[in-house]
Design brief:
Blueprint lengths: L15 E3 L9 H10 L3 E3 L2 H11 L12 H11 L5 E7 L2 H15 L5 E6 L3 E10 L1 H7 L3 H13 L1 E8 L2 E7 L9 H5 L2 E3 L5 E3 L4 E9 L3 E3 L2 E10 L4 H18 L9 E6 L1 H29 L5 H23 L5 H29 L7 H34 L6 H54 L20
Helix pairs in contact: 9-10, 9-11, 10-11, 10-13, 11-12, 11-13, 12-13
Amino acid sequence: MMESIIILKPEAQWRTRGVKRFFSDWPGFVKHPLSWVWPETRRITKNEILTELQEKTAIPGVLPTFLQPIQTRLIMLQTGFRAMMGVKIYGSDLREIERIGLRIEQLLHEVPGATDIVADRIVGKPYIQIEIDRDRIGRYGVNIRDVQDVIEMALGGMNLTESVEGRERYPIRIRLARDFREDAEAIQRVGVPTSSGAQVPLAQLANITTVLGPQEIKGERGLLVGYVTLNTRDRDEVSVVNDAEAHLRQALKDGRLQLPAGYYWEWSGQFENQVRAMARMRILVPLTLAIMFVMLYLGFTRWWFAPVIFFGVLVSASGGFIMLALWGVNLSVAVWVGFLVLFGVVDDDGVIVATYLEGVFKDRTFASVDEIRAATIDAGLKRIRPCLMTTATTVFGLMPIFWATGRGSDVMKPMAIPSVGGMAVSLITLFIVPCVFCAVEEWKWKLNRTQGGVGKEQEGVENGAAPESGGPFERSPSPDRA
């Protein structure tokens, strides 16, 4: 493995690329003012730079992958990969593991968002294999142990003793000089002593051949293992892993991928941290919303205030998702933290409006629907400024994070994007609470009036009194009294 550090220049010094516009073929005097609004050039992006680097480094035998330096170290310590994620293939034969890995590499190229796909080239390193012939060494009266000792001392070296110099100790090793072990022919001429004291060339006692063997041997869980590593772009890691796993399972079912008995694969990488965090968020987000709902339910005398305010929370959440789609940001733990901040602020706006409306309508009677609407409008107008101040301070406070481009912005910006988008849409929620409150109060007022009128008529009939208007129970005046 070889590592190279690429330091990018400031973005202002990046070269520009042309952009084809609908007016690009128009005359210059017409095209020039339009180019102020729709420029015909743009800065090259980081993804385009990485694509060009991959094209330039597409050399046979070179499989490049691009990551941040610190990120690379953390992933290697955590999973052993030199990429964001990968597939671990377990089995008992390195050649079969390599075959499966190369096939999986081809299949993963069909998964959207998967890039820098590299399968381990396990077998392919040349080795010198020395096979001792027992019949030959028997004819010369040489033991296997003697031949092995000569091979060990001549090629690998053997420590005989140590040299002690103060507190320092240095091993003294015996080994043939490089000129006598540089190639296969020199190794064949290495002498092996016999029982008679004669020297016999190693080639007469063993078969010396060159074979291909593994470049590295990795093992986990008592099995041999090979890696297929990959990175992701333009998609979140969990979605890429889910789609890739489904694609591999479908290929295994269709017969495009052959997996012998005793072999299996599993996914690993930094996405596992996100999976664990998202599992916690699946508990924390509903729990937080449930606690908010209970507090709203207990804080107001009208029980239906809580669902009304929560409806505004759902509307603001839609604004957060719209902003995520516009900025091309994937769901992550930081995004859900931003949504929690958004829910809290929007909940405060709904409480401000609902509290004031409740105070205005408390112990107050209305003679008509118009009075209810007038009171609602008056209360809503008085609460708009506090709500706008709450929203504005939140948005202005998040703007430095929203527009951040320096170090750490990839973590902070996803927290600000849903909050800013939700705050922009939450302006609609300023009208939701008063309108729903007014509709409910109008319905209650009409219901009370209807029930009150029916009750009075029934009470008059039971007492023998005539109804106010003519009808079957109306009595005519007596002639004597007339």
